[in-house]
Amino acid sequence: MNTKNKNKNGISAFLKKDVYLSRLIVLMLLWMLFMASVRFESFYSLINFQTMASQFPEFGLMALGIMLCMITGGIDLSVVGVANLSAIMIGTFLNLMADTEGNLPFYGIPAAIIGGAVVGVIAGLLNGILISKVKIPPILVTLGSSELFTGISIIITKGKAISGFPAAYSSTVAGKLFNVIPMQLVFFTVMALFLAFLLNRTTFGTKLYMIGTNMTAAKFSGLKTDRLIIKTYVLSGICASIGGAVMLANYNSARADYGVVYTLQCVLIVVLGGVSPTGGKGKISGVVLSICVLQMLSSGLNRFPQVSSFYIPLIWGGVLILVMVLNYFTENKKIKSPKTVLKSLSGQKM
Amino acid sequence: MPQIIKKLTQKTETYIFLVLLALSFIIELRSGQFFTSNNLVDLASAMIVPGLFAIGEFMVIVSGGFDVSFPALASLSVYATTSTLLNAGYTGNIWLPILMVVVIGAVLGAFNGFLIAFFELPPFIVTLGTASVFKGIMQGVLASRQLATIPKGMSSFGTSALFIAKNAKSGLTSRMPVAILVLVIVLVLVFLLLYKTMFGRGIYAIGGNASSAFRAGFNVRRIKFFLYVGVGVISSLAGLIRVCMMTQCHPTNMLGMEMMIIAGVVLGGTAISGGAGTLTGCMLGTAMIVIVQNSLILLGVPTFWQECFLGLLILIGTGISATQVMRSTKMGNMKKLRRAE
User: Contact A135/B312, CB-based, under 8 Å?
Assistant: First the structure.
């Protein structure tokens, strides 16, 4: 790797600029190389990439929401609860709008998804108000509200799965654009681009980073922190509910306890992507990249039938810990350098 | 006397206790089954495993950390112990399984502690990762499956009764398992550790402010490391008791319990930012969660309302304590202002 970088000055400068990103890129390239040498035909096929692109948006969208909250120094553990609740609501709306033959009016699918997004907005409002106005720590609020949303889902469905929606929904949302690009990927890309725009090109994004870096300083410099935090959690709720819409299309049914593992998985993705759990740091490119890396890892492992799929959590956890330990060493270098500067300065004085 | 009342009204534990009493009376009024001897014994035996988990989580939260790996840790150490003993055809008593589970738990806890104490990584994220690793080792490397039988020594420990409570009216009987003694012993030991030793003071000090604790002379790294080792041991014991009481080993059965336990600890008035909280409050909070889970059926509430109810309870409970903290800091600021004047 090193010899290559020396030849191309631009790339090595880029890699040095963002350690988190470059580490993920190296990891992805290594894995792609490995897959190319061992299982070339089955991994590098259009169908495999289409399957991967249709699988990751459901948890990828939730991870985007968690990322926003983590940038402000909080966390949203209720994403899966919100996603399931919106999926159930979308399913109910679809069944209500469909006529006796199961046909939907032309506005049916967008209307149902918007209905689901409204659920996300309400959930986000609840989270945001409890965090900013009542001053409960975000972990606890979203932990409790996650139970609450799951509970409401269970009450609505009586614990059973709901299915039998008009077929048009699944064939549209889980369908393919121009017969090539999975629709799920389109949803994810649109949302990711929108959030990237918000974070990098608007004052709203800058304010979020400020809140995450120092809440008190942000407050005293005149930011309406309460309102900003509420907006953040509403955005996260919308992300989660669109994730729920994708999940509904992928499974063609909705249940209160789908995707329970996604909560921790999403936090893992976001941290791997270089977002600081204490807030103020993190880029959307890192998170998108870490989503891709993890999807490739798990899809790639599926090509080896002799390796049990139970090894996937082991690898994910291992990668997370490894990356954090590596971060520790790189961060320590940064911290140490001013100290050595100080030491040398004091030496000169004496 | 009024001073005592004033002191009591300032404590979160009092409110939890009152809510707990109110809840029990509502259940008693609706069902007439709550204050029966067998129901109380049932509740106590349902408290054992969550209680032990809560003690561990309580210490971690007081130290300013956050542990989500304990169910995976307990599952792994118990599964490893049970399957090894089964393969070896072990027929002895409970002491060897306890020893094995404690050793494995200590090693796994040390892994957590090493990462958290020596690399100074955020505990929530570390334990998220290690939970995933532990689960992966159990399901991948050990190829875990449900074990329908467990060694005789373990099942007889889980089913042996300290005493049997009989409800004269309904004729229902409930056994108080011997395992409750483990909860009592651990509770006493942790109480002594927290309030009578420097190590315990250190846990509170680190949770309040790690750098001041360091300046005050506490070995922060060593305290954190041994704290997670201890939590690993306590969690593994809880896992072993659960398997013994169920008389079968279901490897993934405990996963997902972490949120409920954390909810109980926090309901008990433990500050999520660390440094404050009492063992009494932690036990009361856990008891509340256990009672809600066990008694909604007595109330005639359909079981699918349980989760919703639990969520509301967490939000309201933490909301009350959060507003209390806000009010007390405001009062404190007012006092400071007055003094300044």
Answer: no
Closest CA–CA distance from residue A44 to any residue of chain B (Å): 26
Interface mutation target, options B307, B318, B328, chain A, most CBs of A under 10 Å: B307
> How many domains does the structure of chain B reveal?
1
DSSP A127-179: HHHHHHTS---HHHHHHHHHHHHHHHHHHHHTTS-EE---HHHHHHHTSEETT
CATH number, domain containing residue B84: 1.10.3470
Output the tens digit of pLDDT for each of chain B's 341 residues: 667 777 777 677 787 888 888 888 888 887 777 778 888 888 888 899 999 999 999 999 999 888 888 999 999 999 999 888 888 887 778 888 889 999 999 999 999 999 998 888 888 888 888 988 998 888 888 877 888 788 887 888 877 777 777 776 676 777 778 888 889 999 999 999 999 999 989 999 998 888 888 888 888 889 999 999 999 999 999 999 998 888 888 877 777 787 788 888 888 888 777 788 889 889 998 998 888 888 777 777 777 777 788 788 778 877 777 777 677 677 666 666 676 66
Residues 6+ apart with CB under 8 A from A196: A284, A285
How far apart (Å, rounded) are the C-alpha atoms in residues A314 and B328? 45
Question: In this complex, do B312 and A148 lie within 8 Å of one another by their Cβ atoms?
Answer: yes
In a domain, B322, yes or no: no
Q: Determine, for residues A321 and B126 on separate chains, whether the beta-carbon distance falls below 8 Å.
A: yes
Q: How many distinct helices (H) and strands (E) make up chain A?
A: 16, 4
Residue B333 vs residues A267, B4, B205, B338: alpha-carbon distances, Å:
37, 24, 23, 9
Residue of B164, B161, B159, B158 lying closest to B37 (CA atoms): B164
**Per the domain annotation, does B218 fall within a domain?**
yes
ipTM passes above 0.90: no
Per the structure block, which two tokens stand in for A339? 């100290």
Tell me, yes or no, whether B314 lies in a domain: no
- Residue B224: domain span: 2-304
Chain A positions in Cβ-Cβ contact with residue B257 (cut-off 8 Å): none
Residue of chain A minimizing CA distance to B130: A317
- Judged by CB atoms closer than 8 Å, whether chains meet at A317 and B266 is answered as no
CB-closest option in A143, A312, A318 to B259: A143
Rounded to two decimals, what is the model's pTM?
0.80
List CB contacts (< 8 A) between B273 and chain A.
137
- Contact state of B129 with A268 under an 8 Å Cβ cutoff: yes
Q: So what's the pLDDT on residue B276?
A: 82
Interface contact A320-B121, CB threshold 8 A: no
Q: Would you say residue B318 lies in a domain?
A: no
* Partner-chain residue, chosen from B125, B266, B306, that has the shortest CB–CB distance to A324: B125
